[in-house]
């Protein structure tokens, strides 16, 4: 009964949460007649075959990298894929960009069947991968210009777009430097520039801001916003960075072990754990387990060294804070913080914390 | 209804022991409570139909020659950053071999073979060995994704890179041929033949190098194959063929660089047989076309996995 499983992310029209019926109807009306889905993914499945172990290397079992994924991305939105390493984000993106054939399922981008015609992906989307080896020895200027030419621009247009994009991203001063000689963040920005030369209605960005300073980050999101406002450009963003996800994304799909375990606006997702707060306790040396209240908390804590992280209801949190700040436990306490839930808490609450994975942020 | 929904939400989070294999349903409300038009299946099909109707125009495709030119130019510029020291190495290696061989061969046919072999060795070093390494690394590191997500014909990427690497060999080959001719007192009259020998031997060897680099399952293997190819070109091309055992002579006939060496060597003679020269060059061209076709196929295969 595999067909019955849903591991998906559909527009708000199909998701009825705490929003109430009236607003749901409004959403349906809009989506129903708009037909504004830019990228529709259905039942996308890809399994990596098992690797048999050799003498010195243990084998790996069969891995289902994407498992019945269904996603709808609407025009003009910044849609995020969030998940820990190995959740299947990059595999999913490679299937959307025609770089990898799925075992099963369909991908439709702007009306084109990408599974049947993977070569069309290159003509409707721009992809920023994690690797820059193809461009490393080129100058920033030539990397942008060549990419524009290979995106089908004529020489003059490619040069004009190159100049405009480098200016927009503040890269003009670095135009004559080879990418190899730039810092990690600058190189990433230069690669982002190549993705913008030769306008595309759909941008697929795999961790675009890794290693960037705040100025470069702002340049990236400024450029994305301008394209959204002027051309209704749609963006699919792969990210590890929960804070960035909360600030820039319109909607986010949380991936875990190849499956979409949640999909909503960041605020909508946080609402799901709104009843809870996060309590962080840092002990001076180790937790005073002889205090019964502390011992009781231990079962619910995610421990990392001296640090305990707990998700509690507000009343429980208040009691816990009272317990650790008064009496015997206080002597052992180094620091504590109380915070409202973040996307990371959502991820943990959804059961994404599978064994070794403690959270979303790359260590 | 909203009460039911929130209860469902709460239940899901409470039940932490739930098995990972259990189907997860994102929508917490059963489909039947969602009114008519909003039914999950209904609106989905509407959207899919609407999406199918609104087929967007595809962006332009990069045409073969402009794309090839762009790749060629970009690859050529890499020489400035990364390749110049290696070009010196290639040239010095060939000149050094000729100096060594001066004590061994005594002019005539053997001298011609040594000079021609050393000159074409520069082409083998750069076009075969370095290109195999380049494509091997590009493939292993995921760098091919950049080209594979651009609407560029595979042939443009392979031919552009191959042409650039063949071009890198021009100065070294020229220097080697001239120095060798002076060293062994050979005539410089027919050195113009290099205009044909470099691109044709270059095409054959670069095609081979690209194919090896793109087909090798690991980058170390690509490097190894490139080095082996170059060693073969060195041993089988530079050593005068008359002194080699028969089996090795057969191997020599199988190596595409041999035909470039033969063509160049013949033109050093007093009265070259142009028909044979032409035939040798035709073999180079044929191997070039075939190996570049294989390399293009290998690129396609490597780009989409």
UniProtKB/TrEMBL annotation, chain B:
Major localisation: membrane
Q: Where is the composition biased (Basic and acidic residues)?
A: 12-21
Q: Cite a single Pfam family from the UniProt record.
A: ABC2_membrane
Q: Per the record, which residues fall in region Disordered?
A: 1-25
Q: What keywords are assigned to this protein?
A: Membrane, Transmembrane, Transmembrane helix
Localization of this protein = Membrane
At the top level, the lineage of the source is Bacteria
Q: Name one GO cellular component term.
A: membrane
What kind of membrane protein is this, topologically? Answer: Multi-pass membrane protein
Residues covered by the ABC-2 type transporter transmembrane domain: 80-264
Q: Where are the transmembrane segments?
A: 81-101, 113-135, 156-184, 190-214, 221-239, 274-299
One Gene Ontology term of the molecular function aspect: ABC-type transporter activity
Asked if the keyword Cell membrane belongs to this entry, the reply reads no
PANTHER family, alphabetized = NODULATION PROTEIN J
Protein's name in the database: ABC transporter permease
User: What is the scientific name of the source organism?
Assistant: Streptomyces apricus
